[in-house]
Amino acid sequence: MDTSVKTNKIQNLDQTMINALLTSINDLLFIMKVEGDNFLYHYANDQAIKHANLFNRNFIGNAIQDVMPNEIAKKLIESYQITKRSKQALWYNDQLIIEGKKLYFETVLSPILDDDEQCTFIVSVTRDVTLWTEETNEKLENELRYRSLFEHNLDSILMLDSNGYIKQTNLSTYHVLGYRDKELKGRHISSLIDRKDSDELDRVLSSTLLGVSTEIKNTVLVNKNGHYLKSHIKCIPIMLDDEIKGIYLIIRDTTSVNEKENYLFFLSQRDQLTGYYKRDMYTSLMNQTIHDSEILNSGVALLIVNIDRLKIFNESYGYEVGDFIIELVSKRITSIVEKTTDKSCPLIRHSGDEFMIIFETKSKDNIKKLAERIIEGIKVPIKIPTYDEKLIISSTIGISSYPKDGNSSDILLRNAERALLACKENERGSYSFYDKAYSTITQKKLNLENLLRQSLEKDELEIVYQPQISLHDQKLIGLEALLRWKHDKLGYIPPSEFIPIAEQSHLIIDIGNWVFKQVAKQIKVWLDQGFDVKKVAVNLSAKQFYTGEIEQHISECLKIYDIPGELLSVEITESSMVNREQTASILQKLKNLKIKIAVDDFGTGYSSLSYLKDFPVDMLKIDRSFIQSVVQDNRNAAIVTTIISLAHSLGIDVIAEGVETIEQIEFLKKKHCLKAQGYYFSKPVTPREIEQEYY
Prior knowledge:
Organism: Gottfriedia solisilvae
Pfam family, one: EAL
Strand content: 25-35%
Domain PAS: 142-212
Mean pLDDT: 85
Strand order of the largest sheet: 18-19-21-22-23-24-25-26
Domain EAL: 445-695
Protein name: GGDEF domain-containing protein
Oligomer: single chain
Low-confidence stretches: 1-7
Shape: globular
Radius of gyration: 30 Å
């Protein structure tokens, strides 16, 4: 169906359906109805109602000028008029002062045209871009501050705000103190000064803020390794528009040559990308912390922070973006740790997508607090360089504690890794403390992974097929191919156990390719036997999808077994569609092979209505979690109804999975969903049973 036709039909969704599907959108969403020169409120989500202070106000059906103050209404109407006349999307930025803080917003107005190309509705989406705007303004302001002198000075220069917090450093600071600019930004200058000199530092900073350049001729700084550096510090006020905006701190290292050689050795132990400790430093750092904790009668926690889906981001956007994400996450972790613990906790680059934090404490509540803040802090959306997109990065954390979970650095590391693995499999985006049961679970998973690697060679994998049925006449309309593993000693191993292992170990790519080959081979057998073969759906993992070779592999299967692409369908989950441009390209290549595209588990991933018109999607599969309680749960019923209506309005087919009762069938038929699969009709069965029952 043409994209414009799909877009026009979205307006037919009623208010209840839109609320059920769009309630989780964080942006401000208004849908305005166009009547002559008036724009009437047709819909607003919760965030929009809260921002516009429309609670307890009967605004639906009223014009903008009847709801908003005159000055605001006039500005809004002008923008809506432009959109109406041009019949094209309008982007604009504005700013507001709310509770004394300046906030920046980006808005897009999108016209919805009817069959006569008349603008009948306008969708307004507003996003808070304050963080990005403030960062941009700060960069522009910093560029005006004597950049050449600042960057090329042989002495270390730190730019402080009026409260003593570090805003920027030059390259020489790294050579003197061992900290990169991103590690120091946001820290208070007092954290670098020996305690005995802190009073003198406060006196000097106070004098400088009065406009007097001051200095400390003999003071002691503490570098990143904990070594003491003798220094001469000059403090110069930063004057902008006759106001003191902060302080330049110029540091000259007066340490001896031998001490500097030791310091250069220290720098060699740093990770090149982030500037934090390398993995090799973990053992000595943990052993030292354990030793200190014994003296102070405190405990030690080891937190391993994993950046979720980093491999997918690397595959989708390239390793340059991946490195950008790693650097940004490390910066956020450092800031959160400093604000939460008031301690210097070593941060170690454990692997490509993992960091380790050594936290000296015996309070479980403090550990929980730190883990929760790290997870929430990393979630803040980031703008990808060179891409007009923002990503939300999630993280998962595994935790072990000394002495409860181990009395050595090796055991603590192993148990924190086990906690991380268990957490990733149960609930990504959260944290987990080590439990003794994890040791058994981890060993079992390692054993299963080794056995799974041998399964293809031993011919232990098999394909079963679950029928897809028409609710109109109870006839077969398709099949879904499902993978099963029967080990010669362990028997059948549930997919819920071995599929996650295959995903994590990248075995899923070889196994997924094997599945396509076996399905194509089976379709050929059925065709040769003269059966009226129905379309067979195959699940496609995200890793397999983004290999860049999936279209070629499927094309080869079609040629080898001489079967038409119309008899194959691929199912991909919403959460796998990370990179819109790359996803659209891959899906179009599959469509060129005449293959159908289905979105699996629809409604459970990172839903976005826009991809339904941008991607060549043929079918939505309603997730079984909605179907199971659709009769008893009004909310699930509303969501299922919305998905069905959305699919129909966009000309997309829809099927319900996990159907088990006649009541569920009656509900689906009433809502005009006439395709289903589930145990009510048949469990997944062998090809032979399909032939006997349906062919």
